[in-house]
Write a structure and sequence with these properties.
This protein is of the alpha/beta class. It has helices at about 1-15, 20-35, 50-60, 80-90, 95-105, 120-130, 145-150, 165-185, and strands spanning about 40-45, 75, 110-115, 135-140, 155. The protein contains 8 helices and 5 strands. β1 (about 40-45), α3 and β2 (about 75) form a beta-alpha-beta unit.
Length: about 190
């Protein structure tokens, strides 16, 4: 077991060290801008990335606020099983996120896609729709980023072809964002209504 522990930690360390720091900074600034301008943020993903998208929405909604602070407007489009399955059944799984965005996303809002491959049709369709509505789109991606890396405004690609490593690093990014935004939201408290 010790060999597996060390091998996995080495892969995570290497992938984390290779992250584009400027793109991480841009994502943090984009989310801070969305908060300051009362914009909505949406997260999406499939499989393990669905769990990460839900985890991100929960952490950023709950763990960034303090007493008497305006709340961060973020939600995961994975979390309503009734709408996801109804859309998948009636309009096809490739449309489960874009169809939800049609009801919700506005210019200046933010979509965060979480995808190891960056090639899932439902993710690609959501990116295209969000961009058509002048929303900012960021991608937490893996492998080579896939088609999503070419479509999003800010692609953060974890340099690994190991799903476990990609998903681990995506969660680390989530927790870094929580720390950054919590501290900056508190600093902003003086001018928040």
């Amino acid at each position: 077991m010790q060999t597996y522990i060390e091998a996995h930690l080495d892969k995570v360390r290497a992938a984390f060290d290779a992250l584009p720091r400027d793109r991480l900074t841009l994502l943090g600034q984009t989310l801070l801008h969305a908060y300051r301008n009362q914009k909505q943020v949406f997260t999406i993903g499939n499989g393990g990335s669905s769990s990460t998208a839900s985890h991100m929405a929960a952490d950023l909604a709950k763990n960034t606020i303090g007493p008497n602070m305006r709340r961060f407007r973020i939600s995961s489009l994975n979390d309503n099983a009734a709408i996801v399955t109804a859309l998948a059944n009636d309009l096809g799984y490739e449309n489960v996120f874009a169809e939800q965005l049609m009801n919700l996303i506005r210019a200046g809002d933010v979509l965060i896609v979480v995808s190891a491959s960056g090639n899932s049709p439902n993710v690609i369709n959501a990116i295209r729709y969000a961009r058509s509505q002048s929303a900012h789109v960021a991608g937490l991606l893996g492998f080579d980023g896939g088609e999503a890396a070419r479509l999003v405004d800010n692609a953060i690609v974890v340099d690994s072809t190991d799903y476990g490593v990609v998903e681990d690093v995506h969660l680390i990014i989530n927790h870094m964002l929580v720390d950054y935004l919590r501290d900056n939201f508190v600093e902003d408290r003086g001018w928040i209504v």
